[in-house]
Amino acid sequence: MKKKLVVTIVTAAISLSTLGSFAGQALAATGTIVGSVNFRSQPDANASSYGYLKKGERVDIVSKVNNWWYKVKDDQGRTGYVSTSSNYIKVSGSTGSSGSSGSSGSSAKDSSSVRSKVIAAGKKYLGTPYEYASDRSNTRTFDCSDFVRQAFKVGAGITLPSDSRSQGSYVKSIGKTSTNWKNLKAGDLMFFMEYRGGSASAYPSNTSGQRITHVGIYLGDGKILHTYSKESGGVRIDTISGKHWEHRFIFGGSALK
Fold it and tell me: What's the pTM value of the predicted model, to 2 decimals?
């Protein structure tokens, strides 16, 4: 009788645990849709949708892909991706990143070797033409966030959010940020406000609350790997110090956990 009571208590405790306490484990969980949500074919807001999952529908959660997406299976046996927002889904049970599902995980160990791989992956695209709102499904052209996303997907095996502001939020959620670009490590992301000219006086000294309009990868030694216009020649390396990039810088940090 005592054994049964212990098992019951342990089971109840597990069911009430948060998802974060099981990070890295592929544990099954159940989700109940609480608000109509897109059922995507990939963990990307621009990916094709199977349609909407409606309020009250239940899904099996295969894994938590990253802070933004769950990989789930619906009652028709289809596997896809939905937002992790509590506005759309309520989770019972626990899950972590799958690691063996074939999809990109949400995190990679923050090490110098992974950072080097991200940079090497990005440099392979030097000269790739710039295109605003480029197609995330191919590498023929990039805008700034698409390029960063591709470098991390290839180099670190993780899929970042598809736009610069969401990438900034993701980096802040990890917590390794700095408003001084000289404190950054090679492989960190750098976030910038809009261009207002080449003079430092054109930019606010207090950058908090400024809207992110650009993102790039810090290379170390005062250099940035990024893409920002057709005229600039696409993916390229630029110097930061003394340039408008230094004046526009808001914050930077690691996208690796």
Answer: 0.62
